[in-house]
Amino acid sequence: MKDVTQPAGIRISREEINALPLFHYRGEVTFIRTEEELADAVSRIKRLRVVGFDSETKPSFRKGKVNPPSLVQIASRDEVFLFHLRWVPLGECLASVFGDETIIKTGVAIENDLRYLNKLYPFSSASTLDLGSVAKQNGLDIQSLRGLVAYFLQVHISKTEQCSNWGKKNLTHRQVRYAATDAWVSLAIFERMLELGMIAPSILSNEPGKNISGNAAAMDMQ
Known about the structure:
Elements: H1 14-18, E1 28-32, H2 35-45, E2 50-57, E3 69-75, E4 79-84, H3 92-98, E5 104-107, H4 110-118, E6 128-130, H5 131-137, H6 145-153, H7 173-195, H8 214-217
Parallel strand pairs: 1-4, 2-5, 5-6
Antiparallel strand pairs: 2-3, 3-4
Helix pairs in contact: 2-3, 6-7
């Protein structure tokens, strides 16, 4: 496995990834099923500066058909919130997190997730940071979440549940673990990039911006 201190411009093979230890998030997971739980979760999330973010969508095997997102995952260091949109449809309360400039939402291909969520309930997103873009701007040819996890955290995550049925009302334990893991590792990668100087520490103290680009987040090395 290539070390993160090596010069930029490297890739990681599937074989190298699979040789790493398998990782599953095993911390606290809070499943949101009621409006009261939703309000409490959003209140707690709004006290955070950075969260890991992801969403899951029921796969479609029909050409041209795209299903709406079924699940939203938001992670802190110690807890992952799972918002199942069959139990609590996306509305003003949860959407307010996406538009909150004081909370950095970080993940992989995050704007794609938000674009599809926006079709369920219109909102303006703010303070998003795509980890793949940061990696690319630092010279790494690794943009997938699985690849970034391997490179920065030296473990591999399973993607076996990715194409499972996220639209059903009651998710399996494996689905819950998978969904929580994807959001939590996004935050862990952000913190590792910060530690390595790939993201400027000022991102945590500056006035939050509407769109945080990789260039704005990257450390100025001149």
